[in-house]
Description:
The protein contains 27 helices and 10 strands. It is of the alpha/beta class. α2 (13-24) crosses α7, α4 (48-59) crosses α7 (91-105) and α12 (183-194) crosses α25 (398-407).
Amino acid sequence: MQTQLADWIRDTPQGREADAILRKCVHCGFCLATCPTYNLLGDELDSPRGRIYLMKQALEGAPVTQRTQLHLDRCLTCRSCETTCPSGVEYGKLVDIGREVVEARVRRSPGDRMRRWFLNATLPRRGLFGAALALARVARPVLPRGLRRKVPRTAPAGTWPPASHARRMIALRGCVQPSIAPSINAATARVLDRAGISLFEVEEAGCCGAVSFHLNYQHDALGYVKRNIDAWWPHVEAGCEAIVVTASGCGTMVKDYGRLLREDPAYAEKARRISDMARDVSEVVAAEREAVVAKVVPRGLPAVAFHSPCTLQHGLRIRGSVESLLAEAGFTLTPVPDGHLCCGSAGTYSILQPDISRDLLRNKVEALESGRPDLIATANIGCLSHIQSGARTPVRHWIELLDEAQDGARHKAQGARGARHEAQGAGGAGRKAQGAGTGVDAGGREAPRSPTYEPGE
């Protein structure tokens, strides 16, 4: 693709990056077949190729309208197109640049600005979001059914093993996950502890910055990025092996820290080092596969449908790793048609584009439940909460299943299947069938277990 970028952006870091990406596109259209919004809406401008044309025009100085902004807003940033593209077009980076340019030139409606401001002001702030979620849980019994399904019940984390190993890794604490599902990082700590690795969180670290960045609050996002780097750096210098991320959406962002701060002389080298150290939890567990699988008690494990988040398979380009780990541990994996397609969560997308998100969710749940699994597993907190809002089948993070398979505090296949069928009746009996159990942590103490979500409500 030939380009003639406008003078005001041509020689900037963003302009040079955008120009290089645009020139790789050969208009082949392969991306259309795997674009969720194009498949739903059938509009060329709601495909990667169409959006690339719109962004090219904006970057070349053509007038930008709300129509341009609408089509860019409808993009999930799932990056399925990147997996499909034979020319290596880095669409995700381009759409970040294009959205920032359009945001500066097109004024949103007051209502849209307020929604985005509110999301940016609450979601990345762990304490504020936690307080809001606590209030929602109190009000949960009187909420409309559709909204009630989106409010998860409290899930105990269980015991976090004390640091006792020479090998140490940092866990990204994040923003919404500690309130919604604290059990995920705790389960990761227990699995790694059994493999001889101590996992710890750094209190001063928080949101990875992805929520703000994709809402076009890039300045706020870079503030979160720098805060995390500052919080982690003393531990990096002290010999910490890796930064473990249990939400693939956050992992994709942390992996990008080096690029985002490459022009910042105070942070460029540190950011590059942090990105190099960032690991999705599946990468860490896979590297310790023999020790992890050896701890599994392979009896009565449930059938699982695995939803691979877009950020895992397209963003981090990790494909098949979680599935192979679960299969080797003894879980039966059910088939999932169209596994490359987005569930519709996409950060704040389900709030800002609810109609498209709802259609994608319906299709994804149908695909996941088509093999009649006992449980649905995934690798990202956003996908987990979104899928559970529309599924009859319980949804868990895959690391929780592995933790429970190791220590024996797990649902038996028959019991989990019964819980699912009872949940279809939306009664208390279904919830009782999924009630909390107890397990034994690495230190031999009983740790409470409870599913993060309960279906059929």
